[in-house]
């Protein structure tokens, strides 16, 4: 999953890189800092270069904080992808004149088609800043995490449209005015022998029915939201088109 970025950075083994191999992973981090990111001064990279030290995870965790990586040390794949994105941006900044006029094959023709087909297709879903932003929004809105960040973004959009627009907030803020209810028209179904208790039981039953209706409404809204996400066709950004 990292091959394209590793190739762009001239990594020696882009196809065979395995971030789950501890030794290979540590060597990769040292290479990335020494050759591409260069956040530390050379004399400050000693702890990171000491890949056989038992304290290396602590040094790496400090490094992540120093470069403002938004992921935790346990989220290895996300961390590697974010660091690669940072390295690519820095590489481009160092060689802006070299890359500014380069255009991928077929990009011009695909661009207009993509814009008309799907507004979100122009987003770089592999961009670490994009992933961090979507994750922050999902956590804030308590949306369940998904492996596809674009799916999470669409879920956020649906929630915002349904719950956080000005009309939705104004509607939710309106006080509900109760309607008069004739209790004698609602049969209780049993008799306690006390008129007051019978009336109280009728009121409790009506309140319970109202709660069930509200629950049913919320269930229907949840089903509609899920269907809206599932119904969206998958977007294949590598092909520059939308399709299942």
UniProtKB/TrEMBL annotation:
Record family assignment: Belongs to the RTRAF family.
Residues making up the signal peptide according to the UniProt record: none
Gene source species: Pardalotus punctatus
High-level lineage: Eukaryota, Metazoa, Chordata, Craniata, Vertebrata
Gene name of the encoded protein: Rtraf
Top-rank taxon: Eukaryota
Protein name: RNA transcription, translation and transport factor protein
């Amino acid at each position: 999953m990292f091959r394209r970025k590793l190739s762009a950075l001239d990594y020696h083994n882009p196809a065979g890189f395995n971030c789950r191999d501890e030794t290979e992973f540590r060597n990769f981090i040292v290479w990335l800092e020494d050759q591409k990111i260069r956040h530390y001064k050379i004399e400050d990279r000693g702890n990171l270069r000491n890949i056989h030290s038992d304290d290396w995870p602590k040094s790496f965790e400090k490094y992540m904080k120093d470069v403002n990586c938004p992921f935790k040390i346990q989220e290895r794949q996300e961390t590697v992808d974010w660091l690669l994105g940072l390295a690519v941006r820095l590489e481009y900044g160092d060689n802006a004149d070299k890359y500014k006029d380069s255009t991928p094959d077929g990009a011009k023709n695909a661009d207009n088609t993509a814009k008309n087909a799907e507004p979100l297709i122009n987003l770089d879903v592999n961009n670490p800043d994009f992933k961090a932003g979507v994750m922050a929004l999902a956590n804030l809105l308590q949306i369940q995490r998904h492996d596809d960040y674009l799916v999470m973004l669409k879920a956020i959009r649906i929630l915002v449209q349904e719950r956080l627009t000005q009309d939705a907030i104004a509607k939710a803020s309106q006080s509900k005015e109760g309607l008069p209810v004739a209790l004698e028209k609602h049969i209780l179904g049993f008799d306690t022998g006390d008129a007051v208790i019978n009336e109280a039981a009728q009121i409790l039953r009506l309140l319970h029915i109202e709660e069930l209706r509200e629950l049913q409404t919320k269930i229907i809204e949840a089903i509609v939201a899920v269907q809206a996400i599932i119904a969206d066709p998958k977007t294949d950004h590598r092909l520059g088109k939308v399709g299942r």
